[in-house]
Write a structure and sequence with these properties.
single chain, 233 residues, alpha+beta, elongated
Length: 233
Amino acid sequence: MMYPVSSIFFFFFFFFFFFFFFFFRVFFFFFFFFRVFFFFRVFFFFFFFFFFFFLLLYYYYYYYYYSLLLFFLLLFFNFIFISSSFSSSSSFPSSPFTLSSSSSSFPFLFSSSTYSFSFSFSSSSSFASFPPPSFSFTLPPFPSSSYFLRFFFNFFFSVFFVVVFTFCLVFFFIFFLSSSPFSSFVFLLLLLYLLPLLLRLRFLLQFFRRHRRLLRLLFHLLSLLLHLLLVLL
């Protein structure tokens, strides 16, 4: 019996990356306290994710317009939700910069929670002496963690993972409408990679802030169990 080349290529490509991600997840499970592996995990996850996205558009193109409509609707509500969570959050100050002045000639002090910059200019009131002006410039060393970097990366990852979470919800509705066993299997895989994704959402992190490590451990254990079930099935 002859199989088309595209089916054979998809078969090897799918199972190679499935088992590769399985062993990578097992490896990351024992070293998830080290943040250096987070970049590789995100990279492999999105590579795996977009592969199924293009596969979905190829095999289920008649659901394309419905999925786009659902995607934009969910994206709109998710952005409203995460913007409200950011506005109600009290972890970030409303004004990170402070500008102060005094009664001197031309003082200037610019300070924030991360660094400070000061500049002063003074001259004598006697015009006959013409003393040279004095300048002072102080810049303390930068600390290891910057306020802007933390705010940017938290905001970027929160919004970025909300978009991915919306895509996964679209996949859920599309695979739920289809009745093939292959779609059900793919949906289980997407659900498997959706579980660690939920830990990066900001509203869940705010809710489970005190038990973050325990929940991360439970999510990884559940992810490994789902992987083992998929391998056994």
